[in-house]
Amino acid sequence: MIIEKIKLTNFRNYKSLALSFEKGINIFYGSNGSGKTNLAEAIYFLSLTKSFRTSNDLDLINKESNEFAIINSYIEKGRNFKKIDIYVSKNGKKISVDDKNINKISLLSQEVNVIYFLPRDVNLFKESPKVRRNFFNIALSKQYSEYLNLLNDYEKVLKMRNDVLKEEKPNLTLLDVYVDQLISYSIKIYQYRKEYFDKLNIFLPEIYKKISLKKSSIKLVYLPFIDDFKNFKDIAKKKYKEALENDLKMKRTTIGVHLEDFFILLDGKNITLYGSQGENRMAVLSLKLVPYFLINEKENKPIVILDDVLSELDENNKMNLLNFLKAFEQVFITSTNKIFKENITNYLVLNNNVSKEESYEGR
Ligand SMILES: Nc1ncnc2c1ncn2[C@@H]1O[C@H](COP(=O)(O)OP(=O)(O)OP(=O)(O)O)[C@@H](O)[C@H]1O
Ligand SMILES: [Mg+2]
After folding, report:
1. Phi and psi of 32, rounded to 5°?
2. Ligand 1: which residue has its CA nearest to atom 8?
3. pLDDT, tens digit, for every residue of 291-301?
4. Which residues line ligand 1 at a C-beta cut-off of 6 Å?
5. Which fold has domain 124-294?
6. In terms of Cα–Cα distance, which of 80, 34, 77, 107 is closest to 349?
7. Which of 112, 291, 307, 352 is spaced 20 to 30 A from 230 at the CA atom?
């Protein structure tokens, strides 16, 4: 899919901005604070209806206008066009697809699917496990439509069990009933995760090799709660029994699929402990690009947003990455410098405005 056009009204530093985008690589370049990330944020918002840097939508509204912000867009999906509009105000936000209001936000990420890499993502493997779980839960929800419901069901039961554990005299029978429910959801969650990690491990080494031009071996290691599909139920029952004393003491469920994690082995070494900043960047970027290759239909290929991805890369790696991305349907990259390369469209971001430049023909 590609974004054909976008119009921003009172969005961040843009009072009124209309832009048409190209297939392939679009570069937003300009000095610090000029509004490049704000543009990337608007595109991201189209898919996820939330920002990557604020949880308060009102921050998106231009400070001087103070009333509302609007994003209008046209998305091309093969032969189909979709009009997507978002209106943000103090009274909440309204989202419409082809002029019909939609209430379920998850529906929008099907209309506009994005993959993004933000500066903070470099630290994915240095952050707490919760950040990584959040990462794979989002990725899995996009890959398997049932997954999010399954996870929500699991979390509901988990919360009920934790509430019982917090009571003065927890009802042990009830705790057991919840354990059985948790186990039945866990088996399915484990299956999805295992299958997904196996898929990631097929594509990750190829992508890493292409963008880093190194022959390093790279492997994702999934750390499941229980790694035995056949005997999952029995093993889980035993584990929950053993953990009960600790659960009662801690007043929460201390084991289970809600505590799973994963890490990366780069040339056999844990990247968290041994990886350089550049290696972390390349590894996380490769990982984030995998979903692009999990979707076969051209019209459904995600749009890629890369904020500040080039800044720490040396010239060779930069060119490698750009060459690799050339084959993608549509990519948006923010950069402090213009990029002179064929088939790349540059947009100068300056004075709260954006000007599209003629694409460079390799002269
Ligand atoms: N709601 C808002 N209304 C008006 N201006 C805003 C609003 N929110 C942010 N800004 C302005 O947008 C600018 C930051 O833009 P942005 O983060 O996109 O910069 P950038 O070009 O990505 O910079 P860098 O190269 O440093 O990453 C700041 O000057 C900030 O004051
Ligand atoms: Mg920025």
Report:
1. -60, 140
2. 12
3. 999 999 999 99
4. 12-13, 30, 32-38, 59, 61-63, 334, 336
5. Glutathione S-transferase Yfyf (Class Pi); Chain A, domain 2 (1.20.1050)
6. 34
7. 291
CATH class of the domain comprising 1-113+299-363? alpha beta
Residue bearing the bigger pLDDT, 107 or 118: 118
Residue nearest to atom 25 of ligand 1 (CA): 32
Q: Which of 274, 289, 136 is nearest to 212 (CA)?
A: 289
Indicate if 124-294 has the same CATH topology as 1-113+299-363: no
Q: 23 CA to middle of ligand 1, Å?
A: 26
- Looking at residue 361, what is its pLDDT? 62
Confidence label for 360 from pLDDT (cuts 50, 70 and 90)? low
Kindly state the DSSP code that residue 233 receives in the 8-state scheme: H
- CA-based nearest residue to 143, from 263, 289, 295, 258: 295
Residue 111 clears pLDDT 90, i.e. is over it: no
Indicate which atom in ligand 1 lies nearest the CA of residue 69. Answer: 1
**Where does residue 24 fall: left (phi above 0), alpha (psi -120 to 50 degrees), or beta otherwise?**
left
**CB neighbours (10 Å) of residue 316?**
10
Instruction: Report how far ligand 2's centroid is from the alpha carbon of 62 (Å).
Output: 17
Q: How confident is the model at residue 312 (pLDDT cuts 50, 70, 90)?
A: confident
**Residue 65 parent element (H or E):** none
